[in-house]
């Protein structure tokens, strides 16, 4: 079973990196948003420092929605998803493999570019540290919760619009706690409570999301 799961993970990563245009689209969207915000509101260092964390988080959420629909779309279209269900591997484990792939493809480039974005937005070292912690703990929540909505909308035409309507309100608390942590760091205040809340949300999502995705896929295929 481990060999099959490893094969699914390798297959998804290989397919993701072969589709370079779809792979680069969320990253380019994120870079465009982060670049245009300073041009729209002015290049003042204090202004950039104040809005920077929120801009990065909003861009991360919106860019993830661009590639979220692909999570199960292709496998559903070519029948691979049905074959995976018949393989004997628990569907929640397959869902977890695909969620890991989505996080790696969508958010690992963001984490790698975060020092450059922090420099561009004039973030201090404490602010960047808080931002990095929120991204490390918060971006898996986007993939985990987003996968549930994708499972429910798999097979629907124009499901991307419904996906955005479902997910954006759910991600607002995550956005609030993440930006609050960075603001506390900017004022040299402790931001441990915000990080703890984000970590708790991530652990809860990690525990429940694969099973919820499994159920959602079964419902959407019936």
From TrEMBL:
Does the record's keyword annotation contain Cell inner membrane? yes
Give the keywords, sorted: Cell inner membrane, Cell membrane, Cytochrome c-type biogenesis, Membrane, Transmembrane, Transmembrane helix, Transport
Topology in membrane: Multi-pass membrane protein
Q: Where are the transmembrane segments?
A: 27-45, 51-68, 89-113, 125-149, 161-182, 194-217
Tell me where the signal peptide lies.
none
Supply the Pfam families for this chain: CcmB
Q: Which InterPro entries match?
A: Cyt_c_biogenesis_CcmB, Cyt_c_CcmB_bac
Where is it chiefly localized? membrane
Tell where it localizes: Cell inner membrane
Q: Which family does it belong to?
A: Belongs to the CcmB/CycW/HelB family.
**Function of this protein?**
Required for the export of heme to the periplasm for the biogenesis of c-type cytochromes.
Q: What is this protein called?
A: Heme exporter protein B
Native source organism of the sequence: Alteromonas aquimaris
């Amino acid at each position: 079973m481990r060999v099959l799961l490893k094969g699914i993970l390798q297959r998804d990563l290989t397919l993701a990196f072969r589709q370079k245009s779809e792979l680069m689209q969320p990253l380019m969207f994120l870079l465009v948003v982060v670049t245009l915000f300073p041009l729209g509101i002015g290049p003042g260092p204090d202004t950039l420092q104040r809005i920077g964390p929120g801009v990065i988080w909003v861009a991360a959420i919106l860019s993830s929605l661009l590639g979220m629909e692909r999570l199960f779309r292709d496998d559903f279209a070519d029948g691979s998803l049905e074959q995976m269900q018949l393989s004997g591997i628990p569907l929640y484990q397959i869902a977890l493999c695909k969620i890991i792939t989505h996080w790696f493809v969508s958010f690992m480039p963001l984490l790698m570019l975060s020092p450059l974005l922090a420099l561009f937005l004039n973030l201090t070292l404490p602010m960047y540290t808080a931002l990095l912690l929120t991204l490390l703990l918060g971006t898996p929540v986007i993939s985990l919760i987003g996968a549930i909505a994708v499972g429910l909308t798999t097979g629907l035409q124009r499901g991307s619009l419904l996906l955005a309507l479902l997910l954006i309100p759910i991600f607002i608390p995550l956005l609030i706690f993440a930006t609050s942590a960075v603001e506390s760091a900017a004022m040299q205040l402790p931001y441990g409570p915000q990080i703890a809340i984000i970590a708790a949300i991530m652990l809860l999502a990690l525990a429940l999301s694969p099973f919820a995705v499994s159920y959602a896929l079964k419902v959407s295929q019936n």
